[in-house]
Amino acid sequence: MHKNTVSTNANATEATAVEQDFVVLGTVDVDRGPIADLAVSPDGTTIVATHYGDGSVSVIDAYAMTVEADIDMPVVEPHMVVAGDRRAYVTISGHKYDSVAVIDTEHKRVIANHPVAGTATNVAVSPDGTRIFVGQAGEDVIGLAVINTFGRIQTIDIAYGVGRTVDAVRVSPNGRFVYVGTSDADSGKLLVVDAAKGRVIREVPVAAPIRDVALSHDGALVYVAGFDTHWGGSVDIIDTAINEVTAKVGIGGAPMQMALSSDGNRLYIADYEHVAVLCTETNSVVDTLTVTEEPSCVAVSPDSRRLYIADHAGAITVMSVAVDSAELEAELMAMNLSTIPGLRKLEPAGV
Known about the structure:
By secondary structure, the chain is mainly β. The protein contains one helix and 29 strands.
């Protein structure tokens, strides 16, 4: 059984300051095995976590950090997840086919399952919730499946070649463009797909194989995390007005997954041993968070004030981002941690 409570690293009443801009509020032990992916609902009230080894999906109250339900999916493996209004969309493997499960996060149950061809690698949903976009990898072709509210599927072939995969799928705020990260063993490409016309309109080369893609909330920038065995991790920044790389930031390590704050100021990059914090104004790493030994993925609340770091042990650490002590007390009281002795006053992160 998961521990349906929040606990801090020190004791049940003390928040722990770990970096200048970050304070650990607590940890929820979901206790369902390694966490593959996290998603936060647009209103910030719900977190959805997938557990591929356990065949389950957890629905978590984001304010109280308590597990509201564990949705079991026997014989299958849930992987990537994206959250919409009262819905979560999860890629599933383990059947004779891959699929995307639609979960009603209000009633905590699966309400639809859409089979897709090939391997379902990543998933995104349009801002209005009417279309699901699923990356597909086949033997010699990769595609983008578009599923509408009636379950009808259109497949767009986006690239050919043995050994290529789809690393990430992201949708522009207006729903017009889909940005698809693809890679082979040596390099990557960001493909820009016109969702209405159903075709690739631009290819942006990236030097290293892609690990993840993050899109700014105004749609102006795309951040592409890559990994090269010689040079390590890097982030390419692409201007969507011209669809060209305008900056490249070496970050080292081996990035796996990213989350961008809604204000666009911080990019959180999950590595095998830490979470790097990239300041997007200076394009430099300003903090390294080591609150868990093996982070698996990271998510940020819609108001940019909370950071969620999941790990391979099945726990989620919740952190408060750049708030003063009075605001932090209110957050801890909302999480039933009413006694807060001697909190250190936070200072701006150094550059």
